[in-house]
Write a structure and sequence with these properties.
Structural class: alpha/beta
CATH superfamily: P-loop containing nucleotide triphosphate hydrolases
Shape: globular
Distance between the termini: 12 Å
CATH class: Alpha Beta
CATH topology: Rossmann fold
Number of strands: 5
Radius of gyration: 16 Å
Strand content: 5-15%
Bound molecules: cytidine-5'-diphosphate
Number of domains: 1
Largest sheet: 5 strands, parallel
Order of helices and strands: EHEHHHHEHEHHEH
């Protein structure tokens, strides 16, 4: 059985948390596609050409801490390059088509990677709420970024992601929007599961 759940949305909206919980609930595999772009971005910070980095990406590139603000910015810079995106399409589509069900989260899953996915969710929240969540995540890891820096980072990345010509961040026309600004994690996950149950 194949069944793809596409979860998109802006930076730090809670896609990862919801995706993991939904995948665990239904016994599906989960792919955080942001990590692919982060791995390419991290390689460019070490001097590799972004298109070469995307074409030669391996599992080894995914180890280490990719969830830093520097790598996030590098990821959104390489993510505007059409050839970088193209190099990552086949892997994402084959993951989506795996037997047993798959949850993919990112920016363009419902619009470009899996436009026929039976469930498309667009998870969002206000920039301030998203920045506060990311600030807590980073400060728990001991990273020194201030609230103001994290908010600026989120806003810059969202703008770059929304305004690019290749696969810009936007909800698919048939996506269900889940605004998590005033929702607990449990409530957001319950909303996502209810949407999926309605379509299975
Ligand atoms: O976790 P967070 O929401 O902060 O970011 P992420 O999902 O790890 O994605 C990092 C960056 O990769 C984004 O800002 C996008 O520029 C890019 N990305 C993308 O272009 N397409 C995707 N499907 C996933 C991520």
């Amino acid at each position: 059985m194949t069944f793809t759940i596409a979860i998109d949305g802006p930076a730090a909206a809670g896609k990862g948390t919801i995706s993991k919980a939904v995948a665990a609930h239904f016994g599906f595999a989960h792919l955080d596609t942001g990590l692919l772009y982060r791995a390419v971005g991290a390689k460019t910070l070490r001097g590799t050409d972004p298109i070469e980095a995307a074409k030669s990406l391996t599992a080894e590139d995914m180890v280490g801490d990719l969830r830093t603000p520097e790598v996030a910015q590098a990821a959104s810079k390489v993510a505007v390059i059409a050839e970088v995106r193209a190099a990552l399409v086949a892997f994402q589509r084959s993951f989506a088509a795996r037997d047993g069900g798959a949850v993919l989260d990112g920016r363009d899953i419902g619009t470009v990677i899996c436009p026929d996915a039976p469930v498309k969710l667009f998870v969002t929240a206000s920039a301030e709420v998203r920045a506060e969540r990311r600030f807590l995540e980073l400060s728990q890891k001991g990273l020194p970024d201030t609230r103001e820096q994290v908010l600026a980072d989120v806003i810059t990345r969202d703008e770059r992601d929304r305004e690019r010509s290749e696969a810009p961040l936007k909800p698919a026309t048939d996506a269900v929007i889940i605004d998590t600004s005033d929702l607990s994690i449990e409530a957001a996950v319950a909303k996502a599961i209810a949407q999926i149950d309605a379509r299975r």
